[in-house]
Design a protein that fits this description.
Structural class: alpha+beta
Radius of gyration: 13 Å
Strand content: 5-15%
Largest sheet: 2 strands, antiparallel
Order of helices and strands: EEH
């Protein structure tokens, strides 16, 4: 039994924090992709998502 998600072959997740790239393994890529895409797909104005950019900045 594998903990890897099938979404890994379908998406590429890149993360940088304070300008530094953070390496994500397949499991974490799948986890992040499924969480974010799941939330966004529930929004009425959002159609099919081909790509997205999310930026979070502390105030």
């Amino acid at each position: 039994m594998s903990c890897e998600s099938d979404v890994n072959s379908e998406v590429d997740v890149k993360l940088s924090i304070n300008g530094d790239s953070v390496k994500l393994n397949g499991f974490v890529q799948g986890l992040v992709a499924n969480a974010v895409l799941g939330m966004l797909k529930s929004l009425k104005e959002v159609g099919e998502i081909e790509s997205l950019c999310l930026e979070i900045t502390k105030r």
